[in-house]
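ARCHIVE CARD
Drawer: 12
Card no.: 0347
Subject: one protein chain, sequence and derived structure
Cross-reference: see card 0346
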Amino acid sequence: MIVFPDDLMYSREHTWARVDGNLVTIGVTDFAQEKLGEILHVELPQIDLYMEQDEPFGTIESSKTVTELISPVSGDIVRVNEDLLDDMGIINSDPYDTGWMIVVELRDLSELDNLLNAAEYRDYVGGEAGLD
C-alpha cells in the first residue's frame, strides 16, 4: 500500500520535502518508487551546489526507466545521503526515512506554497495509483 505521510509536503514531480526550519530534506515519494520499480542507480549533486525549484538535481535509474529528479524547492545543498551509494534499495524499502536523498538550505519560504499536502498529493496521484 502506498503511503502519504502527513508531516511532509509533496511536489507534482513526485518528490517529498520535510521542512525543519530553513532546512528541507528531499526524497522521492512512495508512489514514485513504486512506479519506478527496483532502483538500480542514483546520481545526486555535490554539496554546496545551488539548485532551483522545479529544476533537475539528479537522476534515478530503475529497472523500468531513467528519470530526472526535480527539486521541490530552491537552495544550497548542505547534505547528500551517501548511504544511497552503497544501497539504493533503501529508496524502495524506506523512501521517507533512510531513503532520503539531499538536504537543502531553503532561501525562500514562500516556495513551500507551491507544494501539496498529503491529501492533495494523494488526490493528485489518485487515478494513476488506482486510489480513487
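Annotation on reverse: Residues 9-121 form a domain with the OB fold (Dihydrolipoamide Acetyltransferase, E2P) fold (CATH 2.40.50.100). The radius of gyration is 14 Å.
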